Amino acid sequence: MSVRDHDPMSPYEAGSYLATPEDHFRKLKQAGRIIREYCEGVGPEGIYDFSGLERGLPLSPEMLQWCDDELAQAMFYEDLQRSGLEHMGGQPGTHEVVLLNRVTAGLFTACQVLVEPGSTVIGMSASHSHPAVTRAVRAQGADFIDVTGWAGFERAVSEMDAPTAIIMTRLAVTYDILDIGVIERIVSWARERSIPVILDEAGGARVGPAIFSQPRSMELGADLAVTGLDKYGTRGPRLGLMVARADLAARVRSRAFQIGTEARPLFYPAAIASLKGYEEARVRDLVACTMTVGDAVRGLLGDRLVSTGVIVKILGESLLEMAEEHAGSNLSEPFKGRIAPIEATAVLSMLLLVNHRMITVHFVGLPPGTSAMLIKFIPPELLARFGGADAFAHAISSSIKELPRYFSDDGAMRKLLFGAA
Questions:
Q1: What confidence tens digit (pLDDT) does each residue in 157-184 have?
Q2: Which residue of 20, 216, 315, 349 sits 20 to 30 Å from the alpha carbon of 397, by its own alpha carbon?
Q3: Which residue, among 72, 46, 45, has the nearest Cα to 59 in the 3D structure?
Q4: Contact 340/18 with Cβ under 8 angstroms?
Q5: Checking DSSP bridges between strand 373-375 and strand 358-359, what pairing results, if any?
Q6: Structural domains of the chain, ranges and CATH numbers in brackets
């Protein structure tokens, strides 16, 4: 694989094993084979999904009879509008709901409608925008400038003509929260100039209000916001719930049906069930459980565990450092520079799956959005079934001790990540 095949919009460096999205897909196929073997042996209860995401179909058997495009469109469209507007803080008559097949589809379709080729879009977050944002902008032939903080925003707009749109991410891919004061200043600035504001609210739509007491998405004054129904208090499916000004919603809906990014109406009942089952207290419970796990892991790993106040994470760079320490005098050459941080996280994730039947968030993206090992939004009942926070911490610690074996053996590394040749 050549480095030029790597996604240039990825926020982390590629490696020699995981150089392209195709490599990551091969890795996911191997993970799927392992999961299937466990499920065939002990059933789905034998797998522990610690990804922090819920991507099921929360429907009762009697509701399945309505899962037909024509029937669901007729029976549940209005209910979807009510539930979606309430969840996102939208106003009937002013805003409308559009259901897309994922958050990425919502961002992509919004840019198709709002971004002109040759124009410039500004991205704002507490760290950096998700690749789904940058890809959506650049697919339109527009330039993208990523900034952080009000000073960074002012500097960017002082050096350019007015942007065609602003895309803000409330909860960044690093799980740092965007300051509410910055959000309000940018929305005010954009309104004075009639520049549309898009909110990438993948997880922020719930974490912002539930954890940081911020307003709901549309109460922030954005023109359009899209969130995922598989994240942090909602139970799936993996759909993108968009709420937008009614005129924009009509344009996005039309474009989505043209290019195939819309969610089929047969999913409306499941989306409504997910929204109606949402409670802010659940988000707080998930975060509290995650912090408990973080304390246990920190007890074994020390300060190498990073906390954002919402999740905890182990940087891929830290995994390489720990692997070198565990290798000790057996280390013939440094792992750093030869193994990329994303590959260190991939090996740890695969070991957790193989040895402890744990699915981590590393396996849910293609490629993943970050090179760090994320520990996030852990359901308390799942943690109890696994054996508690100490058992989780032990699984992490014992798996990290195995890293040198794979980093030092090309054949073992490839077999672990991709299976038999």
A1: 999 989 999 999 999 999 999 999 999 9
A2: 20
A3: 72
A4: yes
A5: unpaired
A6: 3-53+280-418 (3.90.1150.70), 61-276 (3.40.640.10)
